[in-house]
Amino acid sequence: MSSKHLFSSPDGLVVKSLRGFITYNTSLSLIESQKVVFDSTHSSSQVSIISGGGAGHEPCWGGYVGRNLLAAIASGEIFASPNTNQVLAAIESVPSDAGTIICVGNYTGDCLHFGLACEKTNAKGRKCGIILAGDDVSVGKKGNLVGRRGLATQMISMCTMPV
């Protein structure tokens, strides 16, 4: 990395950032090995809303976990989706009698891993559905190659989702 960065190596930055999210919010917990942030006060009588994705420049999803927001997130490494086991750990960290909704962007790795986790959860007899956010301003009108990834829409929908 260049000397213009705060840290000399990207190793461990995702976990450090996730620790930061939970430091000042006592209702949040972290499963470091899975990079999962979850609301430890989430009621099993409520639907669990799960999201996440690659860390990108920062694992922004952790900032959306809390009361009346997301129940849990799974964070991948920098520019990499979380794997299926990480997503399953997020789902299992906030069990729900009412079911689980996964809200994720239309990114290939996220669709694959969050989709597999949703299928595995349903196979265990627990209700799980997935919502793909596919509208985005970042790829423009000619974003046919990879499709619209949904980052902007996903952020807006998580902030305005009825509780």
Offer a concise description of the structure:
This protein has 163 residues and is of the alpha/beta class.
Write structural notes for this entry.
Helix content is 29%, strand content 18%. By secondary structure, the chain is an alpha/beta fold. A six-stranded mixed sheet has the order 1-2-4-3-5-6, with helices on both faces. α3 (108-123) links the parallel β5 (100-105) and β6. The longest helix is centred in the last third of the chain and has 16 residues, at 108-123.
* CATH homologous superfamily caption: Dihydroxyacetone kinase, domain 1
Helix content: 25-40%
The rough form would be described as: globular
Specify Rg, calculated over alpha carbons: 16 Å
Q: Which H/E pattern describes the elements?
A: HEEEEHEHEH
Low-pLDDT sequence parts? none
What structural category arises from helix and sheet content? alpha/beta
Q: Tell me the name of the CATH class.
A: Alpha Beta
Main sheet characteristics: 6 strands, mixed
Strand content of the residues, in percent? 15-25%
* Record field, number of beta strands: 6
Average pLDDT number: 84
Number of domains: 1
Indicate the CATH topology. Answer: Rossmann fold
The spatial strand order of the largest sheet comes to 1-2-4-3-5-6
CATH architecture: 3-Layer(aba) Sandwich
Distance between the termini: 42 Å
Number of helices: 4
